[in-house]
Automatic annotation (TrEMBL):
Protein's name according to its UniProt entry: Probable peptidoglycan glycosyltransferase FtsW
Catalytic activity: [GlcNAc-(1->4)-Mur2Ac(oyl-L-Ala-gamma-D-Glu-L-Lys-D-Ala-D-Ala)](n)-di-trans,octa-cis-undecaprenyl diphosphate + beta-D-GlcNAc-(1->4)-Mur2Ac(oyl-L-Ala-gamma-D-Glu-L-Lys-D-Ala-D-Ala)-di-trans,octa-cis-undecaprenyl diphosphate = [GlcNAc-(1->4)-Mur2Ac(oyl-L-Ala-gamma-D-Glu-L-Lys-D-Ala-D-Ala)](n+1)-di-trans,octa-cis-undecaprenyl diphosphate + di-trans,octa-cis-undecaprenyl diphosphate + H(+)
Coarse class of the protein's main subcellular location: membrane
Ranges that cross the membrane: 12-33, 53-71, 83-100, 144-164, 170-188, 195-213, 277-303, 315-334, 354-377
GO molecular function, one term: peptidoglycan glycosyltransferase activity
Entry's EC annotation: 2.4.99.28
Membrane-protein topology: Multi-pass membrane protein
Amino acid sequence: MLIKKILKSYDYSLVAVYLFLVFFGLIMIYSASMVTAVEFYETSSDHFYKKQLFNILIGFGAFLFAAAFPYKAFTKFKLPLKILLFGTIGLLLAVHFIGVEVNGAQSWLNVGFMQIQPSEFAKLSVIIYLAAVYAKKQNYIDQLNVGVMPPLLLFGFICFLVFLEPDYGTAGIIFVIGCFVILCSGISFKMFFKLGAVGAALLAVLSPFIYLGRRFIFTEERVGRIHAYLDPFQYAQGEGYQLVNSYLAIGAGGIKGLGLGQGIQKLGYLPESHTDFIMAIIVEELGLLGVAFVIIGLAYIVLRGIYTGVKSRDPFGTMLAVGISSMIGLQAFINLGGVSGVIPITGVPLPFVSYGGSSLLVLSLSMGVLVNVSMFVKYDEKYKTQKEKNAVNSSEVKNVYSINQ
């Protein structure tokens, strides 16, 4: 009976949108990568399609596990949170010693059957850790020394490890996600602004070191991305090449698109067409209608997650839902902004749609956690609230009976 109630309480609309985006992405990955796989990797045209299908199967298994695992266990028992936190820190430390360098950053670990990016897992770990700790500190959440600061030290250490890879974009994303969790943790705006002042003071102290290490931080490649963002056509044969071809793909697509599989830019003109710039191929082949489906799907997940957080009566559930929603929304904004030239290119994949094992695995785990939180919210509303009403009614009947006696 209990299992039946739990199954009825799951938000299957979230599951449906998650699966739609994942399999839509699989179709687009095949379309965007078939020429690249043959011409540049000298393999079969469905090479990336098969690898992404394998990633989806692993990710869906992780999703089912996270959706069934009670999220409240992270606050009731110390072991799951310790395994998650120290496991993440261990992986981030391992990257600096045995990591694989890709695009100038030593961010990957080879685990045999696939390469994983620990910084991706750090995003979800930070959300769960901060949410679990601050949920326990609700009675003294506005006390700086005992309520707010201790978790921030570990949070800052994780950001620092990712920064050293060096992966400044992901470190920044993790930092912003953490800020969203802290903002909805129950601390007052006054305390939040105090933390901002502490952060500004810390930045002022570190500014001389940043200046001394500017050559390592602001490398030629990173400065080139800024140049390409400001005037891509001036650097069309260099740093702006990718963005210019993204513009051409978007312009060619129009409203209806050229047709699935009929895109031109994926024929060797647009680098990373099946990863970071897959949205440009979607626009070119499916037009604005294809883009609308993706954006509406992502927006639904983000808004539904925020709604779940607002409805939750558990501070831990609220912070988890808002943190996961902000992670998905932030990554979607950064990817779409880079593809369209609104912000500089950062190399962040489009959630659920772009090719990539680590990203999809973390997003699947995150969706599982979000669905689990949503299930508890719906279960509490439907069954616990009814029990409370019945208890109140029963008490009122007894009171009336005793008065009549």
